Amino acid sequence: MPKLKFRTPEADVTIDVNVLLPSQLTIIDSFQLNTLIVISILITILCNSIISAPSCSNRRLNPNKLQELVSHQKILLESLEHENEKFTSSDCFNQMETIMLKCQEYNTKLLKLKKSMLNISQRTTKIKKQCSKLHELKAKSLVAEEEVRRIEMEREKLLVAQPVTSSQSGSTHPEESPVS
């Protein structure tokens, strides 16, 4: 655990956090730790003030001043405990818990959405490939149909372009007879 260092008007103070934590306490949250640190700082400041007071330097304590300091310390301790209770009993912790649950739900929804979008993307890519193959087949079939039409047109031209000879029909056309 870290050591906490701070400066007071009287002296520099270093507090070992391990000393602050009771041995029975196994689970402690950061708020409780901060509260313990603040309380220990205040106690240390009070103790330093008592020790550094001019009346304490010769080891004679004024009972009235000591009683006053103890009463101030009790008031301070009670106010700190009250503030701690306010924070722990406030709705902020409940709200934080509900917010964290919502975050988990939204994260799950986002992961599902991402998975479905990836699935849709894969299906779209597959359909595009099929579409391009169909376009290629359509183009090939159009080229084949055009080739068939061209061949049929050439056959028709060959059939139409052949002159009829007298041996085939037995008669002559007037255009073919010699001019006299």
TrEMBL record:
Transmembrane segments: 31-51
Region (Disordered): 159-180
A Pfam family that the UniProt record links to this protein: Snapin_Pallidin
Keywords (A to Z) from UniProt: Membrane, Transmembrane, Transmembrane helix
Top-rank taxon: Eukaryota
A Gene Ontology term for the protein's cellular component: BLOC-1 complex
Classification via InterPro entries: Snapin/Pallidin/Snn1
Sequence ranges of Polar residues compositional bias: 163-172
Name this protein carries in UniProt: BLOC1S6
Species name: Bugula neritina
Phylogenetic placement of the source organism: Eukaryota, Metazoa, Spiralia, Lophotrochozoa, Bryozoa
